[in-house]
Amino acid sequence: MTPITLTLSDTVPVTVLTGFLGAGKTTLLNRILQGDHGLRVGVLVNDFGAINIDEKLVVGVDNSTISLSNGCVCCEINSDLIEAIETLIQRDEQPEYILVEASGIADPVGIAMTIGNQRFADVVRLDGIISLVDVDQVFAHPDHPGMAELKLRQIACSDIAVLNKIDLVDAARITEVHDWIDDRIPRVRTLEATHADVALEILLGVGGDDRPAISTGTHMHDASAFDSWSYRTSRPLRLDELQAEIKAMPGSIYRCKGIVNSVEHPDRKVILQSVGRRSTMSLAEPWGEATPLTELVIIGQAGAMTDADLGCRLDRCVPGEGPGSP
Questions:
Q1: What's the predicted TM-score (pTM) here?
Q2: Residues 190/251, Cβ–Cβ less than 8 Å
Q3: Can you give the pLDDT at residue 171?
Q4: Nearest CA to 19 among 138, 104, 100, 101?
Q5: CA distance to 12, 109, 114, 123, 183, per residue, from 118 (Å)
Q6: Interatomic CA distance for residues 201 and 86, integer angstroms
Q7: Whole-angstrom distance, CA of residue 36 vs CA of residue 214
Q8: Furthest-apart CA pair in the chain: how many Å?
């Protein structure tokens, strides 16, 4: 098993949005910036002009930063992403989450490497890369194969690919896009959306750990499309086995989050956040007088698994229960 690297529990999670021109990134950012969700989200964009921010929400403008009444902050990336991130995290009210919009023709790997810069090691962490795919135009311009290659690379770098604008195509096209991705990038997690209506629980992993949950009634999606499952045990889990089980979950499972009672760190809580097959684990405060307990929440497509299936998978992380246990 690969050794588990633990981050600090108070680092700010960063989500990178990627996708080709016109895929829906700006629509999604507008939903977040203008949403009544009660979250302090810092959004880094390439061009203010493309973001249609309601003037009634604006409570302050400072150079390349716009502060909104719902707690969100929108900052323009002038030329240096590192400088833009530093500007956000040095604010008096530090964002609880950061979203970075990648250029439509950008390779998100470079952005991910910047977020992983050693100077940010104790401040931010890469939570996930989300790519948006325009199912209506994904096969446009067949005479320019470089475009298709870039789109595939953006998807390949992502933890979840959002197949957007499904309202503009028929079922056959949606199946064709799924097959096109699956044939080239096995096991990538995909979900379907209209008008970039992506659940914040999936996009940002809100709630389920020491961060605030999204306010009741402010979900930005059809709740019937998703299910959540809970797992609870007082038996300590092995972190390497837990990471392996998360990676092996069905492609229709998007998020896993919560607090872990681990074998490796019996005196302290471990916070788990995963998006797609990417998992981060961070050391939190000591258990103190609280009874050590693992409590996880998993979010995915409706009907993706059963409580029994989840329990069977995660019980294998208990020493003596897994296939390779002594």
A1: 0.84
A2: yes
A3: 97
A4: 104
A5: 14, 16, 9, 10, 36
A6: 26
A7: 10
A8: 65
DSSP E strand boundaries for 203-261: 226-233, 253-260
Helix intervals (H) in 139-247: 145-156, 171-184, 200-203, 239-247
Given a cut of 60, is residue 220 above it in pLDDT?
Answer: no
Torsional sign, CA 155, 161, 163, 165 = negative
Helix or strand run (H / E) with residue 33: helix 25-33
Cβ partners under 8 Å of residue 322, min gap 6: 238, 241, 316
Looking up tokens 């999204």, which residue turns up?
A: 214
CA pair distance 57, 54, nearest whole angstrom: 6
Closest alpha carbon to 82 in 92, 72, 74, 90: 90
Which residue would you say has higher pLDDT here, 8 or 113? 113
| 288 CB-near residues (< 8 Å, 6+ apart) | none
Lowest mean pLDDT among 64-78, 138-152, 263-277, 312-326: 312-326
Neighbours of 293 (CB within 10 A): 15
- What's the rounded Cα separation, in Å, for the pair 84 and 88? 6
- Dig out the tokens for 266 from the structure: 């019996």
Residues 6+ apart with CB under 8 A from 217: none
